[in-house]
Amino acid sequence: GPLRAVGTAAAQSPEIAGKYWLPLFVAYPDFHIGIILAMALAVLLWVVQKSTIFGFKTRVVGLKPGTAKAMNMPATRRQFQMMFISGGFAGLGGAIQVLGQVHFMTARMGNYGYAGIAVALVGRLNPLGIILAAIFFGFLDNGAFRVEESSLALPHDMANVIKAVVILVMLVLAGISLRRS
């Protein structure tokens, strides 16, 4: 199939030609221009969300569907618009990952969606918070690989345990916050 590069037993696509790779931002190989693009888009999304009518209506439909209905907002239409836009951002994120870092697709890439949901929850669904949560999760994953290879030899799954604890703490804090309001 399409995820079967010639000469390998792994389920992966052939490597993308170097001329299509995203340029590096600095000499560090994992820090490419796509990371800056993703952060800029998150900031732009935050600005749209906080200071435009489109953002206001989207927040109303997402947070208070009953209010949106009372204001005669086409809630279903807005929900489909946001699913379409979210899918576009997810596709762009996948393209940035493939063109900027790994340069081929593997069957193991399926877990990024679940990681994205966790990042969004920890970032409290705020685009700027999501940037911070994504950086935190990235440091955890990268650090876990480094510690696993070091003399400490801790398993990489420790990063997953830390992420799970952070998510649980965030959910508990959100529950406490909802109870108070």
Percent helix range:
55-70%
- Terminal CA distance reads 53 Å
- Over all CA atoms, what is the radius of gyration? 20 Å
Roughly what is the average pLDDT, rounded to an integer?
86
Helical region count?
A: 7
Q: Mind describing the biggest β-sheet?
A: none
Along the chain, the helix and strand elements come as HHHHHHH
Count of structural domains: 2
What class do helices, strands and sheet pairing give?
mainly alpha
* Low-confidence runs of at least 5 consecutive residues: none
> Oligomer, anyone?
single chain
How many extended strands? 0
Précis, in short:
The protein has 181 residues and is mainly α.
Write structural notes for this entry.
- This protein has 181 residues and is mainly alpha-helical.
- It has 2 domains: 105 residues, no CATH class; 74 residues, no CATH class.
- The protein is 67% helix and 0% strand.
- It contains 7 helices and no strands.
- The longest helix is centred in the middle third of the chain and has 28 residues.
- The radius of gyration is 20 Å and the shape is globular.
- The termini are far apart.
- It is found in: Cell membrane.
- GO terms for molecular function: transmembrane transporter activity.
- This is Sugar ABC transporter, permease protein.
